[in-house]
Amino acid sequence: GDSVTQMEGPVTLSEEAFLTINCTYTATGYPSLFWYVQYPGEGLQLLLKATKADDKGSNKGFEATYRKETTSFHLEKGSVQVSDSAVYFCALRSMSPLTQGGSEKLVFGKGTKLTVNP
Amino acid sequence: KAGVTQTPRYLIKTRGQQVTLSCSPISGHRSVSWYQQTPGQGLQFLFEYFSETQRNKGNFPGRFSGRQFSNSRSEMNVSTLELGDSALYLCASRRWSGGSTDTQYFGPGTRLTVL
Description:
heterodimer, A: mainly beta, six-stranded mixed sheet, four-stranded antiparallel sheet, 12 strands, B: mainly beta, seven-stranded mixed sheet, 11 strands
């Protein structure tokens, strides 16, 4: 079945450092890919997404490019801030067969905890 | 526009009891999905509802069930609670447009503790 593998961390960086969180996937076809972020005590917030190969999703200084050839969707940010401290989840959209009428689910990686120190 | 809301935010139950969690989707969203988040298993899909019908179900025992109402609000129920059911239960809604732009938006979750 579909799966997502991401570096689990934890990752600890100093403010203004460069961030990379690796994410690779296994799926049938070319699924949409997402990065969600979870702050302490909260639910998941959509950070960015890409729906087809070579698409680049970006938001709040974060970027990720959908690489079909390497089945990857690595998250990057050029200069992290203390406020970026959170858990980051890579996910793919897994579609159900037509018999289930267009249902879909998200398949998540295990999450990467990022701590940014001042 | 209001986001996905979940009630209650926190629950404490004992083994053997049952629990009902509630989710109100974003206005205009017709699909509601439920996920369980635990430290050991991570985020796992429970089920998705659309038009008051369960459309897809994850690999969970029959003790986990749900329903959706005509206004798209959803409830999930867990019967005969076990210690391992302690988790953060997240609800997500989407439009059900079928296109690649359809995105799931999550609520803050309900933290269930089973003693």
